[in-house]
Amino acid sequence: MRNRRMSVLMIAFVVGVSISDLPPVSASSDLGVDSREYKLMLEVSRFRGPNSLSVIDEMWNDSIRQPIQGLDGIEPKGGAFALEKDRAVRFWDTGGGGCTLGNHGYAFRERVKMKNGKEVEKKREVTLKFRHPEAERVTVKDMRGTHADGKKKFEMDIGIASGQDSPLRFLYSKSTTQPIGKNRKINKMQDLLELYPKLANGLQEEETSVDPDRKLERVSGLTIRERVYDGPVVDLGGREAEVSVTLWYDAQEDGLTEPLLAELSLKIEASDPAPAFSAATLDRAEALFLAMASLPWADANASTKTSLIYQYRNFCS
Q1: Which of 65, 71, 108, 270 is least surrounded by Cβ atoms within 10 Å, i.e. has the fewest?
Q2: Which residue, 102, 168, 109, 101, is CA-closest to 133?
Q3: Residue 111 CA from chain centroid, whole number
Q4: What is the tens place of the pLDDT at every residue in 194-231?
Q5: Is residue 197 assigned to a domain?
Q6: Total structural domains in the chain?
Q7: Is 317 within a domain?
């Protein structure tokens, strides 16, 4: 049934069938998540060189904007792409063949704002995230941090699946992001437990123990230079999806000409009151996302961001 549903959506894009003519969406439209983000990995070689912004504009204007104007109920809006975020990104985990976090559904990430090519240490934040395909496994996790300004999120990521009956994969995540002092060290698990005191309980639920003295290392030894471009939005019939393109570079390399990864995102924030996401909104979002996935710019074999950084130097081996 799900395969048939996706086929119908693709036909809708190609021949311009009205969304209202499609059968009802099969998945629940109100899952209690704060946002749904559709993430499409792009062919990274297209973004090599010094003019990444012009390449992004070319992709949007020539390959996406014009075709989606023909899909009933979907309208591209907003201005041109512009650099919105420029930051250093590091993931931390136990090394030496362990990966206590990554092997049990967790990711611990540090982000620092960049200005004029340098890190602004007072603009530093960390995020602890737990991810799983089953929403029930995610909702029970206590991800609270110790900072009063911590921001909690419960999200759903949708990507292109491979080797499954459905063309889409769904992954739930729960996270807390909090600021961290510029002199705060991240050296061992105890440092992480002081930031997120309930992590030990969460790992025990995943049937693993915590050694507070276990050393934390930068995953694959990498510091990522992350540049996020946004601007356009897509009207899905009263609800807007924010469009962004993220490029990752190795911060230790000179220049910003050889990206490691390129990702296109469509993000829909939940509305209030319920239902957070109507069936019509999800119909249009899935049709749009699958149509984008069929473009030459898409790369079904590319690694996602977290997978890439863990696999980059076989960190967990």
Answers
A1: 65
A2: 168
A3: 14
A4: 999 999 999 999 999 899 999 999 999 999 999 999 99
A5: yes
A6: 1
A7: no
In this prediction, residues 75-99 reach a mean pLDDT of 92
Tell me the one-letter amino acid at 301. Answer: N
C-alpha to C-alpha distances, 240 to 76, 153, 177, 282, nearest whole angstrom: 9, 19, 25, 11
CA atoms of 160 and 291, how far apart (whole Å): 11
Find which of 34-43, 67-76, 284-293 is predicted with most confidence, using mean pLDDT: 34-43
Buried b (16+ CB within 10 A) or exposed e, 163-195: eeeebbebbbbbbbbbbbeeeeebebbeebeeb
Q: Side chain identity at 257, as an amino acid letter?
A: T
pLDDT over threshold 50, residue 22 = no
- 143 located within any domain: yes
Confidence of residue 162 (pLDDT cuts 50, 70, 90): confident
CATH number, domain of 168, equals 2.40.320.10
Structural domain includes residue 22: yes
Domain range for 124 is: 1-311
pLDDT at 67: 80
